[in-house]
């Protein structure tokens, strides 16, 4: 079986070529067949994935209908390789089954993280005190954990590695309509595979802005995500979210009091905005220490078995500012002061009329939630307080579990990515 290597020299730390030549190829000296695919431009990982798939499809022995692929890159590179490898199925996505893969060959991923956030890798090998890179060599050794696991389980033979873990792939279909003021919006349907997150609102805006050449140059590390976050902290997004049930027939929501996901009634599975954070995840973290969905990883088990996500499920993390009782109270005051009317479902929340309310929520609530996301994912247990300081019981973050969702935004702010 041919071992494929995809190397993205422009990714994140720009250490892919150095690791490939100095660390990885020497460890693979006993492999008889190795093909190295180097990305040459933005999104070129898709081409690499297609080339690997063509090689697998050309195998005459049907038992070889799988491929081992080492990826030197970030979460975006992995995302591109997956979409290139399964492009045939995506082009006929009406019959694509991301749960069963009846027909498509198996892709075994060995990740060597050289990206910026490396969320996928950090979910598999969470950095601990002993893994904290004290220097370049220590960091290199942490990056090689997946490769060492592969070589150890494989025993340098052609037998299938016993250390394989299932990876949740979600099929995302985007329906877009061209608007007169959005000339670059494509019409029709676009199908994309995601392996970590599909995001909207704040997280989507962060990814979009942080990907600018200017921020990438000035902030080559995860700092650029924080810079982009500050630009979008006060932006609310109107829309409607419908959560689809899991195979057990229910949508469940995390309850911090019982430490369990509890089933919801059908009328509780459609959420109205405004939203400030909306992310659908199959990973617990988006940076080594940024954990928005603490029970979502299938690689690092949670202490309580009942909190674990099944591979065929997805977790949704939602922040809706109107759940904050202080925001709701002040909003009504401002609205009546201005026009004597109530709050409209199609309200333009980003107008100057609500600027003080948006800024207050960001400073008092969103900052607290974000800090808890960086503190082991403790935000899922936070509750709002009344003005007298008493807890009301409403969670600051809504944490749902289902099989998927339908999102209808008032305006388009959506990112599908490896992260």
Q: What report would you give on this structure?
A:
The protein has twelve helices and 18 strands. The strands form five sheets. It has a seven-stranded antiparallel sheet. It has a four-stranded parallel sheet with strand order 2-1-3-4. Strand 14 and strand 15 (about 390-395) form a beta hairpin. It has about 425 residues and is α+β, with helices and mostly antiparallel strands. It folds into two domains: about 5-155, Rossmann fold (3-Layer(aba) Sandwich), CATH 3.40.50; about 195-419, Tumour Suppressor Smad4. About 30% of the residues lie in helices and about 25% in strands.
Please give the domain count: 2
- How large is the count of helical segments? 12
Q: Roughly how much helix do the residues carry, as a percent range? A: 25-40%
Unreliable stretches (pLDDT < 50, length at least 5) are 98-102, 157-161, 412-419
Shape designation: globular
Mean pLDDT: 84
Distance between the termini: 30 Å
Number of strands: 18
Please supply descriptive tags for the structure shown above.
419 residues, alpha+beta, Rossmann fold, Tumour Suppressor Smad4, seven-stranded antiparallel β-sheet, four-stranded parallel β-sheet, 12 helices
């Amino acid at each position: 079986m041919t071992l494929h290597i995809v190397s993205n020299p422009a990714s994140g730390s720009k250490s892919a070529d150095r690791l490939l030549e100095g660390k990885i190829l020497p460890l693979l000296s006993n492999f008889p067949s190795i093909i190295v695919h180097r990305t040459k431009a933005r999104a070129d990982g898709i081409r690499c994935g297609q080339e690997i798939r063509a090689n697998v499809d050309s195998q005459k022995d049907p038992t070889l209908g799988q491929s081992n692929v080492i990826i030197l890159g970030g979460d975006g590179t992995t995302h591109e390789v997956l979409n290139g490898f399964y492009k045939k199925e995506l082009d006929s996505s009406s019959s694509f089954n991301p749960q069963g893969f009846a027909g498509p060959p198996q892709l075994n991923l060995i990740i060597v993280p050289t990206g910026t956030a490396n969320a996928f890798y950090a979910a598999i090998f969470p950095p601990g005190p002993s893994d904290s890179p004290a220097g370049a060599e220590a960091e290199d050794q942490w990056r090689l954990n997946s490769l060492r696991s592969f070589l150890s389980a494989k025993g340098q033979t052609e037998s299938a590695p016993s250390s394989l873990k299932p990876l949740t792939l979600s099929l995302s279909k985007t329906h877009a309509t061209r608007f007169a003021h959005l000339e670059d919006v494509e019409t029709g349907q676009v199908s994309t595979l995601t392996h970590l997150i599909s995001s909207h609102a704040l997280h989507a805006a962060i990814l979009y802005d942080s990907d600018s050449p200017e921020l990438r140059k000035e902030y080559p590390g995860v700092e650029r995500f924080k810079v982009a976050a500050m630009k979008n902290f006060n932006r609310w997004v109107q829309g409607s979210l419908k959560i689809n049930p899991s195979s057990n027939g229910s949508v469940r929501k995390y309850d911090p009091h019982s430490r369990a996901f509890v089933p919801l009634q059908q009328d509780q599975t459609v959420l109205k905005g405004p939203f400030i954070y909306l992310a659908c995840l199959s990973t617990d973290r988006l940076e080594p220490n940024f954990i928005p969905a603490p029970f979502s990883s299938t690689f690092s088990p949670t202490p309580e078995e009942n909190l674990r996500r099944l591979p065929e499920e997805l977790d949704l993390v939602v922040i809706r500012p109107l759940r904050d009782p202080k925001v709701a109270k002040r909003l009504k005051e401002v609205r009546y002061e201005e026009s004597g009317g109530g709050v409209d479902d199609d309200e333009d929340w980003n107008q100057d009329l609500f600027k003080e309310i948006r800024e207050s929520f960001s400073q008092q609530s969103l900052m607290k939630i974000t800090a808890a996301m960086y503190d082991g994912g403790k935000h899922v247990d936070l509750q709002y307080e009344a003005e007298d300081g008493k807890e009301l019981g409403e969670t600051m973050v809504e944490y749902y579990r289902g099989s998927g969702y339908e999102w209808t935004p008032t305006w388009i702010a959506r990112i599908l990515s490896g992260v």
